[in-house]
Amino acid sequence: MKFADFILVDAIRTEIKATDKEGVIREMVQALLDAGGLKESDYESIVQAILKREELGSTGIGRGIAVPHTKHVSMERLVGTVAVSRDGIDFDSLDCEKVNLFFLLVSPTDHPGEHLRALEHITCHLKDDAFCRFLKQSRNRDDILHLLDEADNDVYSK
Question: CA dihedral in degrees (64, 8, 154, 129; nearest 10)?
Fold first, then answer.
């Protein structure tokens, strides 16, 4: 699996405006909606599904990274987006640090393997310090797309 398989280019946000966890989730789901990745009628139920998943345990995995995700019955395919916060946002992260990098995934309920492969792909690349550092320094969508493409082409160690 590659980032190109599920990241919606038009949903990428280089400067998240939200200042709290729910706001980040809402902004990123809105980005997916604006990019045509989901239906407007499903927006609120997808947000609520992600928030419910967060209640099980924060997807703020540490080192300034969060990977909020959910499966939803309305989805026909896996979609995702990336967002960056320069200042960082309190996301109840496991290491209690603010989060700067966000990868959000929404997938169909009947494709759990695909959902897991996407999470594995994301977390594998997020273990690479150079990849994360460059993402945090990205100033525009093209910068992020370039980094994701490099990751897809194994430029960064796994």
Answer: -10
Count of CB atoms within 10 A of residue 42's CB?
Answer: 18
DSSP states of the chain: --GGGTB-GGG-BSS----SHHHHHHHHHHHHHHTTSS-GGGHHHHHHHHHHHHHHS--EEETTEE--EEEETT-SS-EEEEEEEEEEE----TTS--EEEEEEEEEETT-HHHHHHHHHHHHHHHT-HHHHHHHHH--SHHHHHHHHHHHHTT-S--
- Among residues 69, 115, 121, 125, the one annotated as catalytic is 69
69 part of the active site: yes
Q: Which of 116, 84, 71 is nearest to 17 (CA)?
A: 84
Q: Phi/psi of residue 5, each to 5°?
A: -75, -20
On whether the pTM is more than 0.90, the answer is yes
Q: What is the pLDDT of residues 75-100, one digit of tens each?
A: 999 999 999 999 999 999 989 999 99
Q: How many CB atoms lie within 10 A of CB 99?
A: 28
